Amino acid sequence: MGSPPSDFIMTSPESLDSKEFMHLNPQDFRGQAHKAVDFIADYYKNVETYPVLSQVQPGFLKNRLPKTPPNTPESFDTILQDVQTDIIPGITHWLSPNFFAYFPASVSSAAFIGEMLCTCFNAVGFNWLASPAATELEMVVMDWLAVMLQLPKTFMFSGSGGGVLQSSTSESTLCTLVAARDRVLDEIGIENIGRLVVYGSDQTHAMYKKVGKIAGIPPHNIRCIPTRMEDEFALSPYSLRKVIEADVEQGLVPLFLCVTVGTTSTTAIDPIKDLADVAKKYNIWVHVDGAYGGNACICPEYRPFLDGIEKVDSLSLSPHKWLLSYGECCCLWMKNPNLVVSALRTDPEYLKNKHSESDSVVSYKDWQVAGTARRFKSLRLWFLLRSYGVENLQNHIRSDVRMAIMFERLVKSDVRFEIVVPRRFALVCFRLKQFNGFDTSYTELLNKKLLERVNSTGRVYLTHTVAGGVYMLRFVVGATLTEEHHVINAWEVIKEMANTIVNEF
């Protein structure tokens, strides 16, 4: 070893300040945590007073904060105050009852407590021995949810399949796509990866293209099959078959089909059974993305949207969108988890133990993209399911749908507006109609201005989409704190802004 630099000074333990910095002092933690909980409760209580869509401009925060970190500790009270003054103005408030954009990020007291305990234990349950309760509770909760969805036993640990909690639909889709890829490459050879083709519709979530490229599928082999407004933007089995037949004729190898229950733009429902029948003729892995719409299928009246699920290979849905669970909570069920494990398994010596050698013991590190990073997220769902019970979760879904139906009726009551596609679940797609002989491009401009005006008020936040070449506004009910009067007030804001725009033209 070389000599230390001339200005390097060895510090003995005796010379250190006698007052050590305590990383986790239980008493200090108790006081700070109580203050934090009070802060959070007040935020939820007052969230409606903030503009829903943040009104700041790019660069606002880096211009407010120091360029370097502090050399000495700052007080907890000072930091918390800065959250109020510096951070909150830059937040778009997804938990506002006036948030009707994208899809909801639903929350609940029960899930919050579960998340606190997850953080408390900080267990890294990558295999059974690393935290037995983390592994086994996840297995139990995944089977509970499967029962709620009336999934076949082939997707459950109590049957021949199993489930895992991922952070996102993207990760769930990637895991299943990699498993499908490796299964086929074992037969045709890795040198033929360029022949693999994956299928979805032009309404499939954008993550489908991303995970396809990550899995090594050539971008020109990622099919986005056109849908039609006449079919309510559902993927046609006939169109799918025609595209597959053309690929096979060209010597390509059909690999993977992503079916959607509740697309992002319009909540279109792809027909699972008929699409699976087409896919199975070509040994295609069928994955169902039910990120939003799948949650509603815990209600008997929506369960028919999963008809044919027994014919597919995997299914994912995201409780953080509509089942009151905090973010990054996606459930993935598979008929044959061993295919995913085979594709993703790592077996370093430092993780081996007698339990990890057993095929009968689940090691969740091999069910995910991450190596050993794995939080105890099943605690969140466990608290949620026990605190609510199935009936109350069903009623929660139905309540949001009722409010969406109310908004739909308000839109229909104004002759200037139209519903663009039939409402499903709690999303209403609408727009100002074409009028006064204006063409389609002019109508689009009109609706863009309407969206901009509505969002600039800070009283409501909506987003838009384009499907079938039609620009439309999306109104999604689902924020935990939303009540009927928020929906009515939102409609009043929309009408008010529409009045100003129509008068201008």
Description:
With 505 residues, the chain is α/β, with parallel strands linked by helices. It has a domain at 123-374: Aspartate Aminotransferase, domain 2 (3-Layer(aba) Sandwich). Helix content is 40%, strand content 11%. It contains 14 helices and eleven strands. It has helices at residues 26-46, 76-87, 109-121, 132-148, 169-188, 207-214, 237-249, 272-280, 293-296, 319-322, 337-344, 378-412, 440-456, 484-504, and strands at 162-166, 196-201, 222-225, 253-260, 285-289, 314-317, 330-334, 417-419, 427-432, 463-467, 470-476. The strands form two sheets. It has a seven-stranded mixed beta sheet, with helices on both faces. A four-stranded antiparallel beta sheet has the order 8-9-11-10. Helix 5 (169-188) crosses helix 11. The longest helix has 35 residues, at 378-412. It starts with 25 loop residues before the first helix and ends with a helix. Mean pLDDT is 93; it is low at 6-16. InterPro entries: Aromatic_deC, PyrdxlP-dep_de-COase, PyrdxlP-dep_Trfase, PyrdxlP-dep_Trfase_major, PyrdxlP-dep_Trfase_small. One of its GO terms (molecular function) is L-tryptophan decarboxylase activity.
